[in-house]
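Shipment paperwork, digital attachment
Item: protein structure file
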Amino acid sequence: MTTAATPHTTALLPELSYLALGDSYTIGESVPENGRWPVQLAQALRNEGIPLADPRIIATTGWSTDELDAAITAQEPLGTHDFVSLLIGVNNQYRGRDVEEYRVQFAALLWRAIGFAGNRPERVLVLSIPDWGVTPFAVKEGRDTARIARELDAYNEAAHQACVQRGVAFVDITAVSRARGAEATMLADDGLHPSAAMYAEWTRLALPVAHRLLAHA
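Attachment content:
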């Protein structure tokens, strides 16, 4: 005699808290709330049996590293969370700020993120900065797209090095942003920010890493 398989359920498991830190890419400028990549990621993890709550998001379009840091301070105490994500830096690059300044400020934010995760670096996930230089907005504005790419590569390398030093997972979503970031379906109406479909690509890349980090929560 065979019995029916028991469906995946998270109902009997304790809900895990999630803090998402960032800028327009985390708040999801120009997309509905359920299209934001942290919200998509939480839903995808729940679908795989990991009871991650929808995130508390501290992010605003236009924020640079120092502005995110100040906003975090203004909202403290934030408590301890089971999972923390961090994606920040595009506005530093957009404003022409030095990569060495970014290196220092990103490292400080990463330490804060680890602290919010209960001093568990294995519960922190960092996403790389996407390349906005491929977007219609950048082309229309006559931006030097090769320079944008070089500078973002330097920023992302600085962030990656900080993550390696602290044992934090780093997910590269820059490649997919370059490969598909000019497609109309991957863009919000402003021609600059990602659409929910592009955020779904980021979620696809982040999901197996986040699952590994939370599998034994």
